[in-house]
Design brief:
Blueprint lengths: L4 H14 L4 H9 L2 E5 L4 E3 L7 E7 L1 E7 L5 E8 L3 E2 L2 H6 L6 E4 L3 E7 H10 L1 H27 L2 H11 L3 H4 L2 H8 L3 H10 L3
Antiparallel strand pairs: 1-8, 2-7, 3-6, 3-8, 4-5, 4-7
Helix pairs in contact: 4-5, 8-9
Length: 197
């Protein structure tokens, strides 16, 4: 498939925010990414499947979620334009996923296969370091969110979301935001009506 220079430049910006690469390493890394498109509400990776790709979102909105034994869904993460996506633990460990990756809107992405990712890491030690730093950054964000979920009141969680990402109220259906915050939809609606920043 043909690679779009503008799309690769957007990817490059995101990669370099983690750590700059030398030009030869970047060129090798960039060559492995392939464009892919998905329709709205399409499951990209299902629980039980092994994640074969890491994704970079060009357009669209996705979520990672879990379905509990009681069939209740828990939204864990959202990804959107200019962010990386995929089931990271399944990808890195090549073990079956416990989670689903689903598009909430039609989505265009670049993807890199696990085989290509592994080959690149072996050839370029700086990419191994880049991957480690990217994973550490993602883990730091997840731990921060975990503390919020365990220690914040419903209103504090809601205010935190609005402070960090006010745009999500227009982008993401409220039932998924409620799930992401660990709130029932009725509580989320009350907070939406009463909390002003």
């Amino acid at each position: 498939m043909h690679q779009d220079v503008a799309e690769l430049n957007i990817l490059r910006e995101a990669v370099y925010r983690v750590m700059p690469l030398t030009e030869p390493v970047w060129n090798d890394f960039a060559a492995g990414w392939q464009p892919v498109s998905y329709k709205r509400k399409e499951v990209i990776t299902a629980a039980g499947e092994v994640e074969r790709y890491v994704y970079f979102v060009l357009d669209g909105l996705q979520r990672i979620y879990h379905i509990g034994e009681n069939t209740r869904e828990a939204t864990l993460l959202f990804s959107y334009a200019r962010t990386f996506s995929g089931i990271a633990d399944s990808f890195q460990l090549q073990q079956p996923s416990r989670f689903y990756l689903e598009t909430l809107t039609a989505s265009r992405m670049l993807r890199l296969s696990f085989g290509d990712f592994s080959d690149l890491m072996e050839r370029h030690p700086s990419l191994e370091r880049w991957g480690r730093l990217a994973t550490a950054g993602a883990l730091s964000g997840l731990l921060e969110r975990y503390v919020d979920i365990l220690t914040f009141s419903a209103e504090e969680k809601f205010r935190g979301l609005l402070t960090r990402s006010p745009h999500v109220l227009q982008l993401i259906p409220h039932k998924y935001l409620a799930s992401y915050l660990g709130l029932d939809p009725a509580t989320f609606s009350k907070l939406l009506a009463s909390v002003k920043l």
